[in-house]
Amino acid sequence: MTSVEEGVPDIQDRLDELRELKRQAREGLDPSATERQHAKGKLTAYERIELLLDEDSFNEVEPLRRHRAQGFGLEAKKPYTDGVITGWGTVEGRTVFVYAHDFRIFGGALGEAHATKIHKIMDMALSAGAPLVSLNDGAGARIQEGVTALAGYGGIFQRNTKASGVIPQISVMLGPCAGGAAYSPALTDFVFMVRETSQMFITGPDVVKAVTGEEITQNGLGGADVHAGTSGVAHFAYDDEESCLQEVRFLLSLLPANNRELAPVEDSGDPAERLTEALLTLVPADSGRSYDIRAVIEEIVDGGEHFEVHPAWGANLVCALARLDGHVVGIVANQPTVMAGVLDIESSEKGARFVQFCDAFNIPLVTLVDVPGFLPGVDQEHSGIIRRGAKLLYAYCNATVPRVSLVLRKAYGGAYIVMDSRSIGADLALAWPTNEIAVMGAEGAANVIFRREINASDDPESVRRQRIKEYRTELMHPYYGAERGLIDDVIDPRDTRRVLIRSLAMLRAKHADLPSRKHGNPPQ
After folding, report:
1. Domain residues for 146?
2. pLDDT tens across 236-277, in order?
3. Is 149 an active-site residue?
4. Do 122 and 248 belong to one domain?
5. In this structure, are 458 and 311 located in the same domain?
6. Tell me, what CATH number does 104's domain have?
7. How far apart are CA 331 and CA 373, in angstroms?
8. Backbone angles phi, psi at 178, to 5 degrees
9. Residue tagged active-site, from 165, 179, 232, 444
């Protein structure tokens, strides 16, 4: 038996050394840094990853990476991981890639080695065809490393764009995100934020005050509720990290791994042939009365469960992911409780982005229509409702996934066309017997068509009522569209669920080709 040469460590020594290095990488060089992180109500990067992924499924990549920068004291401080944790694991058994800034190390600031680790894990996610989740908690570019840090961001942006529409990309904001760093989340599919602890802005409060004289807090400028309800930058806002990461897991369970696969099918136990009796009373026949479209969605989908996207922004349009007979669908629906369900700039942009996402990832679209038109007003016109409203039109016209639209009540003017009408490519256009499809409401139409007659009459109000009734009878009865092939069928509201399920089952093998082109040029 050969003895170990004196002074040469044996395998056990090496294993002990490796264990110590891994401990340092996980715990960091400063134990108090973890305490400070917890004192702010924030978890560490490793704790966040453990909440996101299935138990004991995380495989770390480059935990022993260290920077090579010189100057400004960096050469004396070379912690393992370089402030970002990268790797892959599973969510409900399906592969997910993740990177998480470690605020305990350089404040999570991005340097050359830090960026290279992120680039590698992004490339791996794209090659493997699996979702990528970024857990953001960083102080921006590492100033001591100069322009190389900025170049690192460029590599991230380039990869975000390359992966767009190929794998789902989810950004979870768990701390500050300032300057150019904020553009990576903006390039991803979904942005989650946590109230009080996460902020996003291009220029911070100090710069804003210096340039404009305005005083504002970080949360007031770029907090979770600001971006979820005012700017539309964030899709979701939560009170704590635990609930936020749990919802990220739920969203991932609804999404396919990539654009070549379908979303996972899950048996909910909700019968496909179930009648939706409640719809007879949930939706008033009087088109002037309001109701909550979410209640309609809950009645139709499996188990009443749906995951609403951007609930606090553009709330006059509801966009949600749900299941019908176990298959994931994207639902776009006008919301009568908010501005009567009209389309405006925010709701059009929100809907367009959602339709594009569903189309990119093979998620069929169900559109529930109850729309009185586009929102009139000087502000809307001057802010570009024409080009920005056209985004929703473009998204629907460009979508090749199965598309079924259902008119519940009113569908007037250009908004009727935009809400996935038969004329712009809906595979099936259905309606309830309470539908009113027209250029405009009967009152407005009668006032235009019969204006002279009404004004010349001895009893203008009586003539107006008569002409309104005539217009409604001739051009707005529930079978007018069906008689002209614009509606494929008028259905009993109680049959809504089973008709939608049967329709989508028929369309499951749909294949549609777009014209040969590099890419379209959608309205901006």
Report:
1. 13-254
2. 999 999 999 999 999 999 999 999 999 999 998 999 999 999
3. no
4. yes
5. no
6. 3.90.226.10
7. 19
8. -125, 160
9. 179
